[in-house]
Amino acid sequence: QVQLVESGGGLVQAGGSLRLSCAASGSIFSINAMGWYRQAPGKQRELVASVNSGGSTNYADSVKGRFTISRDNAENTVSLQMNSLKPEDTAVYYCKADVGMVVGGEYDYWGQGTQVTVSS
Q1: Contact, 20 vs 45, CB < 8 A?
Q2: Which of 6, 33, 82, 108 is 20 to 30 A (C-alpha) from 120?
Q3: Nearest of 60, 58, 54 to residue 31 by alpha carbon
Q4: 42-51 contacts, C-beta under 8 A, 24 or more apart
């Protein structure tokens, strides 16, 4: 089994910054893509940013230039630096990892979610 543990959410004023972190542990052979998704009340879960094992990144248009995703392959962690936050960034943020298992197979795992609230 694999566990993803997130940290770093909270309440911040518009224009402020937060940093989210996610650590993966368990029967991990390799991790391909890692990413952050978010889900606001009444809306579908959406991709915020992702990074593959080679370091290539992908961002939602709404966060480009404000958010930066990074990962540490040795530690199996992924972080999301969020700057210039806006009220519309308010959501539950989820970490996701595409994990190759020690026993074989490849599966997607999700964290439990962390609340980010941006006040105007």
Answers
A1: no
A2: 6
A3: 54
A4: 43/91, 45/94, 48/80, 48/93, 49/80, 51/78
**What pLDDT does 105 receive?**
87
Is residue 102's pLDDT more than 90?
no
3-state secondary structure the chain: CEEEEEECCEEEECCCCEEEEEEEEECEEEEEEEEEEEECCCCCCEEEEEECCCCCEEECCCCCCCEEEEEECCCCEEEEEECCCCHHHCEEEEEEEEEEECCCCEEEEECCCEEEEEEC
For residue 119 the two structure tokens come to: 């006040």
Q: How confident is the model at residue 104 (pLDDT cuts 50, 70, 90)?
A: confident
Reported as a single tens digit per residue, the pLDDT across 11-62 is 999 999 999 999 999 999 999 999 999 999 999 999 999 999 999 999 999 9
